[in-house]
Amino acid sequence: MKKFDYPGAPLVLGVILGPMAEDNLNRALLVSANDWSILVQRPISLTFLILAAIAIVVPLYTAYRERDLIAPEATA
Fold it and tell me: What is the mean pLDDT of each run of 10 residues along the chain (76 residues)?
């Protein structure tokens, strides 16, 4: 973790909250008879899913853009 400068707090949160999230996902799917649309039926859950997708896509997009902007300068 120190080699790549990763903070420890997200790792601890993932280890603690990961199994809890998995258990609750299994419960929700059991209640809905394995219908995944239950995860987007309420506006608040849909909002959280959209925010999570944005939190994943935006850093990837900015890293991709920076790589493309830096690459032409390196060859010139």
Answer: 84 95 96 93 94 96 86 59
